[in-house]
Structures are given as C-alpha cells and as structure tokens.
Amino acid sequence: MRPIRSGDRGPAVAEIRAVLTGLDLLSKATGPFSDEFDAATERAVRAFQQSRGLSVDGRVGAETWRALDAARWRLGARTLYHAVPVPLTGEDVRSLQERLLEMGYDAGRADAIYGVRTARAVAQFQREVGLAPDGTCGPHTMGALRRLGRKVVGGRPQWLRESDAIRQSGPTLVGRTVVIDPGHGGTDPGVVVPDGPLRWTEADLVHDLASRLEGRLAASGVRVQLTRGPAPETCLPDIDRAQLANSLGADVFISLHTDGHANPDAEGVATYHYGTDNGVTSATGERLAGLVQREIVARTGLRDCRTHAKAWDLLRITRMPAVRVEVGYLTSPADRGRLVDPRFRDRLVEAIVAAVQRMYLPIERDVPTGSIDVSELRAAVAAGTMVD
Ligand SMILES: [Zn+2]
Fold first, then answer.
1. Separation of CA 184 and ligand 1 centre (Å)
2. Which InterPro entries match (predicted)?
3. For residue range 314-373, what is the model confidence (pLDDT) as tens digits?
4. Is 101 in contact with 311 (CB distance < 8 Å)?
5. pTM (predicted TM-score)
6. How far is it, in rounded angstroms, from Cα 49 to Cα 60?
7. Reduced to 3 states, what is the DSSP secondary structure of residue 386?
8. Highest CATH level, class, for 161-383
C-alpha cells in the first residue's frame, strides 16, 4: 500500500482524521469535517507515531494504519478475550492492562495485546471479586473493574482481605513465615565502594544484615527463609525472588538493599511498598513500610528519606505485605562508617524486628516508635498481656 500522505484527499483521509480526533490529536472543531491530509493532520500523525513508538514520518503506511485501527477501540465497546492464534489488540486492551497493573495484577507489559498473561490476570481478578474466572472481559467484568478500579483505596480486593486477616490473626509471631531478600549477589555486587578498610559491597553487607535478621526472627518463633546464600553463582531476578516468596506462602517479605549516589553527601534510609502514581496502594505494605522506616530512623539516627510507593516487580508480584528497605548510602562516608559497625547493624535489625512485631499489634494497642524492647514484648505476648 502506498502511504497516505500530505496533500492526499478522500475517504481514507477522512477516516484517519476521525480516529485522530477521537484521540484528541486533532481539533474537534475541524477534525471530522474535512477529507484533506493537511498540515494539522500531518502534525497529528507524527504525534500519534511518536506516542506509539513507530517511526515518525508523518505518513500513514501499513504499520501506522494498523496502529490507528487498533486505537479506535475504547474499553467497554467490545468483549475482550484471549483469541488464538491471532490475539485481539487495541487501545481498549491497553487500558485494561493498565488498570489491572494499577490494581496489582500481573498483566505483564501494557502492550495492547490480549495474550495469555492478560487473560490470566483477568481470571485472577474475577476470582477475587466472585465472578466466574474465565479470563474473558465482558460486561460483568467490565462493571466490576469500573466499580473497583479506581475507587478502592486498599488496591486489589485481596489486600483488603489481607488487612482483615492480619487484624484477626493476633499479635504472635510464632509460626509466621518471613522471607528475607538480600538484594543483588552472584555476578551483581550492587553498590561498590572504593578499596580500603571500609570496603563492603552492597551484596555482602545486605547478606550480613539478612543473616542477623534471620537469627532475631527465628528466636521469636518465626520461620525464616532467605532468597539467596552469601555467595550465589548467579543473581536471581526480582521476579523470581517474588515468586519464591509466593510459593513459600510467606506472611511478610522484606528486601534489603543499600543505596548509592555519585554525590557523597547523599545519605539516609528509605522504604518502598507497592503503589502507583494514581494513589493505588497496598494498604498492608504501606503500613509495614511506615513502621520499618520510623523504627529505623528512631533507633539508628539515619536521615529520614521517607517511604515511597513503587510498582516494581518485586513489590507488585509478591502476594503478602512486602517492603524494600534501602538502609543508608554505601557511597556516603557517614552512612558507611556506621554500617560497617556490627553493633549498628544489630540496631538496624532490631528496628526491623520491632516493625514486624508492631505490624501484628492491633492499631489501638500499638506502641510508640522506638519504645519497644523486642524481647520484653515477646514475653508479654507469650504471657497473653500486652504492652501499653
Ligand atoms: Zn540494591
């Protein structure tokens, strides 16, 4: 097909202009009322090509035509399903994938193709809201997505149930499973600092922290599993770490990292939980992240770089309260000087244990940050009395 280009005229141009108008790339006042490929049409085509990652030449060849055709579909206008062998594609599929991702479902990349992974994410959503999990997005599923999609503050329905489950499960840590994830490892050392007596790689340091944390939690009756040993051969991708935690049925997932920056003045601790820019968040993940952050700041004096919502694989795919902690900057002489001190690392670990314990205290029985002696608290829990 010869590309449709500047100067052309006719029904095909009128159709192109209609789609571009629907996408707000052409003015509603003039867009639909002409069949001329004018300068405004060319600008709109270029903008469209850029937004879709196509080569930007301002002409409508076969590839751009297909993309424009797919762009017509608005979510809800047709039933979406996993078609074989040629999958459905379109803007409606992309909107659906984005909505599923925002809600924490593993729909893969928002690539506008309704493949197996999208169908599986739809089926999981259907199961959680009590619809037949057939992986097909018809009017009922669309209705449930509309009702829940942007309104539910706790994110996906599973997270609301999670909060309830945590409230009802009582304050004891005995028998719970915590997966600790020392970041990096193997071929990936993470942040590396210059040679000298204070030399540590991030991978080694966070493994040391993970082992200390493992010991402290195990002493509280927690089943602990690390995602890697001290010197693995390869570096496990985040997605595999998350899936390991899922397969172990973990109650809590804690990923340990240190930060690094070209500016040696950058320092402090930051904590991350699942969430998106639109305010969708894992309520339990956010609570755990807040507790970890506040306990560490109170007990160690590291600068408070606050908690943040991120849609990283590690946090998105894990099905339990999950946090990633960046316990200071290895590139900061101040932070590094503290981190190489084993007593400081014990204080860090104590702070994380306190946070995990507070996660299971009913909110009205919660204690001030930095105030609990973990062993005292454990004794109180065991005796059936709570700390005030
Ligand atoms: Zn790291």
1. 6
2. MurNAc-LAA_cat, N-acetylmuramoyl_amidase_3, Peptidoglycan-bd-like, PGBD-like_sf, PGBDSf
3. 998 888 899 999 999 999 999 999 999 999 999 999 999 999 988 887 665 666 777 666
4. yes
5. 0.60
6. 9
7. coil
8. alpha beta
Q: Residue 12 is which amino acid?
A: A
Rounded distance from Cα 205 to ligand 1 centre (Å) = 11
φ and ψ of 347, to 5 deg: -65, -40
Equal CATH topology for 8-72 and 73-154 = yes
d(C-alpha 265, C-alpha 332), whole Å: 6
Tokens for 131?
A: 């619809």
Considering only the C-alpha atoms of the chain, give the largest distance between any 2 of them, rounded to a whole number of Å: 85
- The class of domain 73-154 in CATH terms is mainly alpha
Distance (Å, whole) CA 105 – CA 98: 10
Give me ligand 1 centre to Cα 69, in Å: 42
Q: Given a cut of 60, is residue 382 above it in pLDDT? A: no
Share of the chain above pLDDT 90, in %: 50
Indicate the residue type of 189.
P
Q: Ligand 1 mean position to 217 CA, how many Å?
A: 22
State the DSSP string of 54-120: ----S-B-HHHHHHHHHHTPPTTSS-B---SSS--BSHHHHHHHHHHHHTT----S--SB--HHHHH
What residue segments make up the domains of the chain, in order of their start? 8-72, 73-154, 161-383
State the pLDDT confidence band at 309, using cuts at 50, 70 and 90.
Answer: confident
Are 307 and 286 in contact by the 8 Å Cβ rule? The answer is yes
Ligand 1 geometric centre to CA of 223 (Å)? 25
CATH topology of domain 8-72: Muramoyl-pentapeptide Carboxypeptidase; domain 1 (1.10.101)
Query: Each residue of 79-132: pLDDT tens digit?
Result: 999 998 888 888 889 889 888 877 777 787 777 889 999 999 999 888 877 788
- The CA 109 to ligand 1 mean position distance, Å, reads 23
Q: What single string gives the DSSP state of each residue in 160-229? A: HHHHHHHHHT-S--TT-EEEEEE--BTTB--SB--SSTT--BHHHHHHHHHHHHHHHHHHTT-EEEESS-
Phi, psi of 223 (to 5 degrees): -80, 125
Asked whether residue 381 carries a pLDDT value surpassing 80, the answer given is no
Q: Which residues contact 333 (CB under 8 A, 6 or more apart)?
A: 264
Separation between Cα atoms, residue 123 and residue 380, nearest integer Å: 44
